[in-house]
Specification:
Helices cover about 10% and strands about 40% of the residues. By secondary structure, the protein is mostly beta strands. The chain starts with a helix and ends with a strand.
């Protein structure tokens, strides 16, 4: 019956409007405030919102006798609900933006429409407006339901092929998928709740059904569009009361569970990644309750049950367990639940939700705990020290020079509210410091004892990092490029690492006469390139990622890129005499190995080193340690100290549309201030001129540049100092 109804609906409503009817229509643009959007929509372009996750839907109330849609989507299928009743299925059949009739011959009055995307997709599509009768408009809708549920899962959660009638897989499974008859929306309808579907067929908690580790829900969970790394989803704008997780079937398959026992190591990996994902959800969704649902496989049920027990034992009482059995005869589409089976699963989960008071916000009584901080007494070698602390949950931190309760501490950390907290301490040479630190979590639980940080200050010394010119690299290895792991042939072999570090010293004569330098970078998968300790460029490594050993490249990529260093891109860092080129190579999540090769020549076509030349490299599975040197070790006597330069936090932040960027210059020198997008593409150069010593400021107007909402980065270069500041533009 489902198949027969489906094709009847398609023949009736999958029709393009005739051109001669267009003048009799009123087109309602997507940015109309009376349209409600549910699920993850990319609203960056307000005139053409895009989508890719299953189950996204929109709702509007309108006047008139007909309703149509403008869309650039000839792939997806949508349920059409008129006045709360399912009236048909829409499927566009034209490329480009087209007008389609959805429903006609309604009584002349007020009606409602709900359009719900039934299926999954591996591309993004856009919606471009509604079409009403001439002279008719949208009406203010009722308030959105207060209750909110998010469903995180795989093809079971996405209701893959649930309206298909046979055991095999159809070539066009989208036609037979109706997420509205999947257990998620069925549960949401039962409770009168909004819902969001964060589910992808084949994906698991750790890997996909074929064992590919890059296809895991936690790795794509921050995406607005499931098929695109950017833009990132803003979790703060939609916080659910309840999250229902159904992940494990694809992990079971990917680990080889259908062919034999799963190893202890893989079972522990599944549990570990599940715990990490739960911690992430608890952080981004204050007060949320989480129901971890295990499918019918015994291995999954046992593992998830253990995970929930372990979470409860450490104080997370807002995480609950549920499961469902195998329903004999209730599966189609190569083992996926039928509509009837989805209703049975929904009944089982509804019973579990009824027992956990899901709509009452959770509040615990466990104070945050500091998990990472400087230990023992240590030395600071600058007038400015950045103190970094990590906590086990989201928290706000304060500090004081004496031990006292959190509410009485005088100093707030500059960056706080999440797990990582940072603040700058102004230091005096020769002075000893003792700082007392306490935190409070979103539930109001404050630490009842202080963490203590002790350090002394010696500004006659300097810390040299591995990128610095005079860093002592005597314990590093040497080898001819290409250098890499997992390769055969004429390759210098290194250990299998997440990040490899490479250095090469070159001597430059007549540096002031050189107008440009080219550095070719080859290898995989991502790179950050430095000249004399200053970052020049990133390749396949986003600005929002910290340059640490454990961070991976954005994607699997073979690098073969020329970096041009000129007057606008770091040429001022080129010195007469000895220079150091430093490169860190990061592998991606989908690659176990790294490789590296490089060559360099200048505008006079002088080659400083060729492909296959010797480099020093570090492959010990961590970041090279810093070293202590005299203050003048790494700079000329007349070079200003880095501590006298500063890029201050922009204000306001978030901003709309202007923000002020303040910076400090130690002595008259060239200042370069640029803004980049999250992909590392330059947006605008704000300052590129000589500035006198002292404090300066410049305004950044995102509205004037017609930029979209999102994260941008300000990069400040002056003297021997480089800093990057994150800025959030919200329209």
């Amino acid at each position: 019956m489902a198949k027969k109804i489906f094709f009847t609906f398609i023949l009736v409503i999958g029709l393009q409007m005739a051109d001669n009817k267009m003048n009799a229509q009123n087109i309602i643009t997507p940015d109309n405030p009376n349209i409600q959007y549910y699920g993850r929509w990319d609203l960056t372009d307000a005139t053409a919102p895009s989508y890719s996750w299953p189950g996204v839907y929109l709702y509007a109330e309108f006047e008139g006798t007909s309703i149509g849609i403008r869309t650039a989507d000839n792939f997806n299928y949508f349920n059409i609900y008129i006045d709360g009743e399912l009236k048909g299925i829409f499927h566009g059949n034209k490329t480009g933006i087209n007008n389609y009739s959805l429903f006609e011959n309604l009584s002349d009055g007020q009606h409602s429409i709900k359009l719900l995307k039934r299926n999954e997709t591996w591309n993004k599509f856009s919606y471009n407006g509604l079409i009403l009768d001439e002279g008719k408009n949208l009406l203010p809708p009722a308030e959105k339901p207060e209750r909110k549920i998010e469903f995180i899962g795989d093809s079971f959660t996405s209701a893959s092929g649930n309206e298909y009638a046979y055991q095999d897989s159809p070539p066009d499974v989208e036609k037979y998928t109706n997420v509205a008859e999947g257990f998620g929306p069925i549960i949401a309808d039962h409770f009168g709740a909004q819902f969001m579907m964060s589910s992808i067929s084949g994906f698991g908690m750790v890997l996909d059904w074929q064992g590919i580790k890059t296809n895991a829900i936690p790795l794509v969970y921050d995406r607005t569009l499931s098929v695109s790394q950017y833009p990132k989803w803003d979790f703060a704008k939609w916080i659910p009361n309840l999250v229902v997780i159904g992940l494990g079937l694809n992990d079971y398959s990917g680990f080889g569970g259908w062919n034999g026992p799963i190893t202890v190591e893989n079972r522990e990996l599944y549990k570990s990644e599940y715990h990490k994902f739960l911690a992430r959800l608890l952080d981004i969704y204050p007060g949320v309750k989480i129901l971890a649902v295990a499918a019918h496989v015994t291995w999954i049920q046992d593992a998830v049950k253990e995970i929930v027990i372990e979470e409860n034992e450490v104080g997370n009482k807002n995480i609950f367990y549920a499961d469902y059995p195998y329903y004999t005869g209730g599966y189609v589409n190569n083992g996926h639940p039928t509509v009837e089976t989805h209703h049975k699963i929904a009944e089982r989960i509804i019973s579990a939700i009824d027992e956990i008071d899901a709509w009452q916000s959770y509040s615990d009584s466990v104070a945050p705990n500091i998990t990472k901080m400087p230990t023992a007494d240590f030395k600071v070698y600058d007038k400015n020290y950045e103190l970094i602390i990590e906590t086990d949950t989201y928290a706000n931190l304060k500090y004081s020079t004496s031990d006292k309760p959190y509410t009485e501490m005088e100093n707030q950390f500059t960056t706080t509210g999440k797990r990582e907290h940072k603040t700058d301490i102004e230091c005096e040479h020769g002075k000893d410091y003792t700082l007392y630190i306490r935190g409070i979590d979103p539930y109001g639980n404050a630490m009842d004892s202080s963490a203590v940080v002790k350090f002394s200050v010696d500004t006659t010394k300097i810390l040299l990092n591995w990128k610095s010119l005079n860093y002592n690299e005597q314990d590093w290895k040497k080898g001819l490029t290409p250098i890499g792991s997992g390769a055969t042939g004429n390759v210098t072999s290194i250990e299998k690492v997440t990040t490899g570090y490479f250095r090469k010293k070159v001597t430059v004569e007549n540096a002031t006469s050189i107008v440009g330098v080219g550095i070719m970078i080859k290898g995989n998968d991502g790179a950050i390139v430095y000249l004399n300790g200053n970052e020049i460029q990133r390749i396949n490594f986003s600005f929002d990622k910290e340059a640490i050993y454990s961070e991976t490249a954005d994607a699997l990529k073979t690098i073969n890129q020329m970096i041009v260093i000129n007057s606008t891109n770091g040429l001022k860092y080129l010195k007469e005499g000895e220079n150091v080129i430093a490169v860190e190579i990061h592998r991606s999540n989908s690659n176990e190995f790294i490789s590296f090769d490089s060559r360099m020549y200048d505008s006079k076509n002088k080659q400083y080193y060729k492909l296959g030349d010797e480099w020093t490299y570090y492959d010990k599975g961590n970041m090279p340690a810093e070293q202590i040197g005299d203050k003048t070790t790494d700079m000329k006597n007349d070079e200003p100290l880095q501590g006298n330069y500063e890029l201050k936090p922009n204000y306001p932040n978030p901003f709309n549309p202007e923000t002020t960027i303040e910076y400090r210059v130690a002595k008259a020198s060239l200042v370069d201030v640029k803004v980049f997008d999250i992909l590392g593409q330059e947006i605008v150069s704000l300052v590129n001129e000589i500035k006198d010593a002292g404090n300066h400021s410049v305004k950044f107007d995102a509205g004037k540049l017609q930029l979209n909402s999102g994260v941008y980065f300000c990069r400040f270069n002056s003297g021997n100092y480089t800093a990057i500041q994150k800025m959030l533009y919200l329209k």
